[in-house]
């Protein structure tokens, strides 16, 4: 059976100038998980994630302070330490999605009862340029889809109004025929008028 023993830690570990403070939202009591970031004097950062639950998370989303890439530098889940070996060295990129009070977030695969450390690497200029291009294309596609939806809604409204006007005209003609016609034409026009009115009601409900 694997176990992790946590000894009392001095407040300095989380409040010294070389690291971010652990904020309340970095402690997920529902998932038994703690995460924080350490930074050295040169600005290099490490993301530390501790999963105290005996369950794995295939896609755990957490907020991070900066956009960039995270790669596992160490994990207790390695088979060398008796772990499951589920954790990989694959680089995980952040997304511009708000989470835990940050503007950026990252999706991580977490093994049960694991302690993992991720190195941080900022995006290159080329990567940022490509990301901006993709973002603009996505925004343009969203605007185009919205324009098409609005155009379709207007066309539907136009067709509906045209049908309503045509039915109302035919109803008036049927009413006129009933008033001016013979008994035989009245018998023919009355059912037609009723049918037209029912159709008109159906159009108005849509």
Features:
3 helices, two-stranded antiparallel sheet, alpha+beta, 23% strand, 206 residues, disordered N terminus, six-stranded antiparallel beta sheet, single chain
Description:
- This protein has 206 residues and is an alpha+beta fold.
- Helix content is 40%, strand content 23%.
- The chain is built from 3 helices and 8 strands; from the N terminus they run αββββββββαα.
- The protein has helices spanning 12-15, 125-180, 183-205; strands at 27-28, 33-39, 45-51, 57-64, 69-75, 92-93, 104-110, 114-121.
- The strands form 2 sheets. It has a 6-stranded antiparallel beta sheet with strand order 1-2-3-8-5-6, with no helix packed on it. Strands 4-7 form a two-stranded antiparallel sheet.
- Strand 2 and strand 3 (45-51) form a beta hairpin.
- Helix 2 packs antiparallel against helix 3.
- The protein starts with 11 loop residues before the first helix and ends with a helix.
The parts where pLDDT drops under 50 for at least 5 residues are 1-25
Please compute the radius of gyration using only Cα atoms: 33 Å
- Estimate what percentage of residues fall within beta strands: 15-25%
Structural class: alpha+beta
**How would the global form be characterised?**
elongated
The tally of helices reads: 3
Task: Outline the biggest β-sheet.
Answer: 6 strands, antiparallel
Terminal Cα separation, in Å? 64 Å
Helix content: 40-55%
Order of helices and strands: HEEEEEEEEHH
Strands, count? 8
What is the residue-mean pLDDT, rounded to a whole number? 77
Q: Which strand order do you get reading across the main beta sheet?
A: 1-2-3-8-5-6
